[in-house]
């Protein structure tokens, strides 16, 4: 299982709505709206890195109100 944090920037005033929609996507563990340079932080998991990429591109990035994402895979060193 591959896990990642997805850092999301949204249009002004859209963070809460974006987090609510993303929280319902299969593979999303948690979605929180936050303050700082990013508006929403998501914890997600998928079977493979390719599946994770598909989750981000095909599902998360299509949510209205998102302007930019940054995916940070979790590593175990």
TrEMBL record:
This is AsnC family protein. Residues 6-74 form the Transcription regulator AsnC/Lrp ligand binding domain. It comes from Streptomyces aidingensis. It comes from the Bacteria. InterPro entries: Dimeric_a/b-barrel, Tscrpt_reg_AsnC/Lrp_C.
